[in-house]
Design goal:
It is built from two helices and four strands. The chain has 79 residues and is α+β, with helices and mostly antiparallel strands. It has one domain: Alpha-Beta Plaits (2-Layer Sandwich). The longest helix is centred in the N-terminal third of the chain and has 19 residues. It is globular and about 40 Å long. The protein starts with a strand and ends with a strand.
């Protein structure tokens, strides 16, 4: 079984929640266009000045997605 990696885009400032929420829409569009089998995307709000958007990928498609979408960072995904 391959590892799952959470690719993360950080957003800061008073509009961070709306920006992260909107960025998730673009992540889902990319998945549809590239016909990927990725099912986990989302956004999380940590406070009024910091939010993230994320996509969970496998080892097999991590490099493709990383090079195309330029996430700010990544971490191993655990449920």
């Amino acid at each position: 079984m391959s590892r799952k990696i959470k690719l993360i885009w950080d957003f800061r400032g008073p509009a961070s929640e709306k920006t992260a929420q909107h960025h998730e829409i673009h992540l889902k569009e990319y998945i549809a266009i590239e016909k990927l089998t990725i099912e986990i995307t989302g956004f999380e709000v940590y406070n009024e000045m910091y939010a993230i958007a994320f996509m969970v990928v496998t080892d097999e498609n991590m490099i493709q997605v990383r090079d195309a979408l330029k996430p700010h960072r990544g971490e191993l995904y655990t449920v």
